[in-house]
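Let's practice the habit of predicting before peeking. Look at the sequence and jot down your guess about where helices and strands might fall. Then scroll down.
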Amino acid sequence: MNSSPCRNPLIAITFLALISLTPALQAQPRGQPMPPVVSPELSPERRVTFRILAPKAESVQMGGSGDIPADSFGSSRALTKGTNGVWELTVGPLPPGSYRYAFNVDGVTVIDPRNPRTSESNENTWSLVHVPGVDWMDTRDVPHGAVSEVTYWSSTLDRSRRLHVYTPPGYEAGEGRYPVFYLLHGAFDSDDSWSTVGRAGFILDNLIAAGKAKPMVVVMPHGHTGPFRFGVPFNDEFEREFTADILPQMEKRYRVLADRQHRAIAGLSMGGAHTLNIGIPHLDQFAYLGVYSSGIFGITGGPGGGQPQGPSFEQKHQAILDDAKLKTGLKLVWFATGKDDFLVATSRATVEMLKKHQFDVIYRETEGAHTWDKWREYLHEFAPQLFQ
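Done guessing? Here is the structure:
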């Protein structure tokens, strides 16, 4: 009987070869370890430090979508380069909220490679950081709903499209039907925006947990049907798609109460204009209308689209605006705009026009401008008024 530990000569040769190579492998120089990079890093004082490893870069600046207040940067948006090749900038203290940002590295815009949280706008992706400190929009220990990315076929546009849908806690149990709220974004955003930088899911979770809002399904569509450019006449393709494809498909796919009293629509900026352009002509289908930082574009002849060609909104829809029967069952028409918003005159003029036609309009003029910190607040104030 052979007592050799290696009965196969080929295995023995391979084993000896590996042993002989081990010292050489151990002697190979290893690459320098990459310095640890944490970004973003939030301090208890709500200061945020941003970092990026770019040892060969000549210049790194903090870019942004305008969410981070300008006075939070101090004298410069430039990041400072350390001896380890890591660039760094601390801003703040920041008010509680969500903020989109990006880096500009030698003229090239990049998202933060150390931060997996992102938010899509129209044609761009941003990195995202949330600064906690306000219970109604923070991630809290309450039952949470779900936000789904949904693909559907648009017969209007003859292509696949995407939207996001929030379903409340308990929906997955498969019992009961819910009211439905269509929530529309603005010109520089997408169907992803309300559930990321807008914190819509968390805002609804917290309101529902506190008993301040009814559990509801929230549909967040993509309001652009092509590239957006200022100066281009307002496009009604989305409004036609909404009524022909989005509303019927979502109300067939989800367990919702598909009647006027359980249907709401609201939007910010461009989405507020969409709300009016959809909601007024179909007033028999919506009991709740919400308009944030918006109105009828062009009603003042200034920001928001200039004077429209042909009949005005009021002229086109005069019969509906004056129909007293349609106002019966209309539960809420709610506007809110910041005093420093560039569309505040548009909001005021739209509210006055609706009041002239005997609409009972609630108008809130708040502090602030055309920014996400206001739109999150408006959603938090508007949602509890729905379906009560």
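How did you do? The chain has two domains: 41-116, 146-385.
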